Amino acid sequence: MARVPRICVVGSVNVDLTFRAPRLPRAGETLSGNLFHLGMGGKGANQAVAAARLGAKVSLVARVGNDTFGKEALRRFGADSIDTDAVGIDEQRPTGTAGIVVDDAAENCIIVVAGANAGLSAQDVRTASPSIQNSEALLCQLETPLEATLEAFRLARSAGVRTVLTPAPAQALPQDLFHLSDLCIPNETEVEFLTGRKVATIADAEVAARQLHERGIAAVLVTLGSRGALLLENDQATHIPAIEVSAVDPTGAGDAFAAATAVFWSEGMSLENAVRRANLVASLTVTRLGTQTAFPFRGELKD
After folding, report:
1. Hey, is 251 helix, strand or coil?
2. Which of 132, 214, 264, 271 is most open to solvent, judged by the fewest CB atoms within 10 Å of its CB?
3. Residues near 208 by Cβ (< 8 Å), separated by ≥ 6?
4. Catalytically active residues, by annotation
5. How many domains are contained in the chain?
């Protein structure tokens, strides 16, 4: 049996309002939807929940508002046995919110209001340093202030903790963050933003991944949707095909994939094998509506 890894996640917590419609609306257009789902999300919370359901011991460093959504988020984290000692209550800002529209082709568009996520500070991260430094892996994203992410990666690096960055939403990043990242997991849009290079093919993804590696990132994993992922590690590029499924809702699948990769890698798998295993987690996720409610438990994976 695999050992239980300790995973720390520093990141965002949102309430997700998901609307299903035949297609995505155009500017100024009103569409009739056919389904509504309210759930919890935020890239940080998503990764924490996905990792916990795969059997990791997870701690979360985040902020929520002193409101109904914040209380519900904490309740759900408790149900997944996530350590929330470092989740602060923001008295000034509401819990972060995301409005998600999903069409019948399982394409989506998302609007995010940061709320309490904008208040996560470097000092919050320093206060939570034991959670970071006692973990095997640290996962961060970019829905909270960049200074918090940088401080978390610095603390992790000083303690020899593996760092995993999901550079979403895409934004300009300081060189320090590249050098502090053991693994960076951008999607096609994000890698294009970071490199200025259009990614239309798997070969394009490899060129872009090498460009990020040259900027200091140890390993790069470019997710390519239905085409799978391109892993660049130790100067070796490997295309890992996706598992074919009938997708229902892709929301959160990238977060589940990143968390699963970190969990399996921390259990002792090679990075390539961890990515292949994470593909299964992502494939199960996209067959279900919603975000965290779609994440599979360890027992659902076929060993």
Report:
1. coil
2. 214
3. 191, 192, 194, 195, 197, 199, 222
4. 255
5. 1
Q: Which structural domain range is residue 60 located in?
A: 9-295
74 in Cβ contact with 83 (< 8 Å) = no
* The predicted structure's pLDDT at residue 252: 87
Strand order in the sheet with 35-41: 35-41, 14-20, 96-102, 108-113
One DSSP character per residue, 21-36 reads -SSPPPTT-----SEE
Q: Any idea what the CATH number is for the domain that residue 155 is in?
A: 3.40.1190.20
**Which helix (H) or strand (E) covers residue 108, if one does?**
strand 108-113
pLDDT of 180 higher than 90:
yes
- pTM here is 0.91
Residue 301 in any domain: the answer is no
SS3 label, residue 83: strand
Q: Which two tokens stand for residue 1?
A: 């049996």
Render pLDDT for 102-141 as a digit per residue (tens, 0 to 9).
Answer: 898 888 888 889 999 999 999 999 999 999 999 999 999 9
Residue 4: inside a domain, yes or no? no
Q: Which residue has tokens 């919050």?
A: 124
